[in-house]
Amino acid sequence: MGLYQRLKSDLQQGRFAPGRILKQSELAEMYGVSRIPVRDALQRLKSEGWLSGHGKRGVAVPLFDPLEVEDLYLMRTRLEPLLLELAAPHLSGEILGRAEDILDRMEIGNQLEAAEIGALNREFHACLYRPAGRRTLFATVEQLHQQCERYIGYQSRGLDYQAQSQSEHYEILSALRQGEIQQATCILGNHISAAGQALVQHLRNP
Amino acid sequence: MGLYQRLKSDLQQGRFAPGRILKQSELAEMYGVSRIPVRDALQRLKSEGWLSGHGKRGVAVPLFDPLEVEDLYLMRTRLEPLLLELAAPHLSGEILGRAEDILDRMEIGNQLEAAEIGALNREFHACLYRPAGRRTLFATVEQLHQQCERYIGYQSRGLDYQAQSQSEHYEILSALRQGEIQQATCILGNHISAAGQALVQHLRNP
DNA sequence: CTTTTATAAAATGTATACATTTTTATATGT
DNA sequence: ACATATAAAAATGTATACATTTTATAAAAG
Hints:
Chains A, B: GO terms for molecular function: DNA binding; DNA-binding transcription factor activity. Chains A, B: Keywords: DNA-binding, Transcription, Transcription regulation. The structure is a homodimer. By secondary structure, the first copy, chain A, is mainly alpha-helical. Chain A folds into 2 domains: 3-60, Arc Repressor Mutant, subunit A (Orthogonal Bundle); 66-204, GntR ligand-binding domain-like (Four Helix Bundle (Hemerythrin (Met), subunit A)). Chain A is built from 9 helices and 3 strands, in the order αβααββαααααα. Chain A has helices at 3-12, 24-31, 35-47, 66-87, 93-108, 114-129, 135-155, 162-177, 181-204, and strands at 21-22, 52-53, 59-60. In chain A, strands 1-3-2 form a 3-stranded antiparallel β-sheet. In chain A, β2 and β3 (59-60) form a beta hairpin. Chain A is elongated and about 55 Å long. The mean pLDDT of chain A is 90. Chains A and B meet through α3, α4 and α7 of A and α3, α4 and α7 of B. Chain A binds a DNA duplex through residues 23-25, 33-37, 39-40, 56-58.
């Protein structure tokens, strides 16, 4: 696994306190590599929102910012229903079946790691979105998801909205199966919006 | 000016043919630096859509993809009116005046370079959006703008929709001054949508 | 005691050199 | 002649070494 993946995973799991300033040499030693691959990884993580450029002072682990969460979920609320609508005509019964499998897997592993739940969650949405064949839109949505995951990792320690989230997921599938596309995109929008509000509230009442 | 800026500017001006594969050593020699800063720049440009990762074979200048343009403008159509709506309460008369100044500057320099027109255009929108104080949403919108500019640079050689675009800009300002926020966001949405369609059509009829 | 300036330490940026992987060209066998 | 295997090349990834910039420290002046 590349250094980029390792570092991201560690950031995701909250192994670096928000606000902390990371130095290249420090990370190089920590992971047993030279500074060159560290630089590459940092650059990527910075452009993906996992790290914030602290000017010339290096990079910092960004603080939790409720306003950022609001923005991320606002954008998702606007973009994901659109993407689902574009994908709907291509969603065969087989694809919907695969999506349901993913949901079931989430159900089973109730004591799953936050990272794993996040991965399955993303897989579920990707399963519904990818058939649209909209690479660019899909990539942007994926990026927003990833940026959200930093907060979700934090949230999952103190908040449990999994139950509600799951039932909404099943509702979306059901609507899609019945060809109620309008209905499905509507539920999806509310689903994302609700998740965002729960997260913001949790960040403001720690 | 950093190598990142120089390379991006050259890509923007179409100095590298779409589909061309760029090698690190080649670029290093071309710009008179070592491969290290080249790598940094390539990584950033890749994550911003200016270059596409060609797997392990290096990076490639992406081909013009009408579907990508459609996606970019679809996203902008959903996000920018939202951002303008959030900014509207903070748009003082002074700010609107500055926005108009930018429009006037675009009017004057009719024979401006494509890059300069693009920069002014972005400045105009940024002027209206920044007061919302929504850093994350703003950053995403900016990124979408930048990705569009690659195509606009190409378009500007064969298509002139500047006149219509300008008049719509003035309409938006006028609506904002009258407090017709709904009206302004609506014009903006149509404005972006129309620009996207013009661009897609031009790409399909070269 | 505070502020300023000079100096040292540390961190980032860049170049060169080496290692590993991937690609291409060549040779060999069927 | 074609396919496959093999060797040479070229390209990317990484480490070490050096240069430049930035930050912290300490000394000196007000």
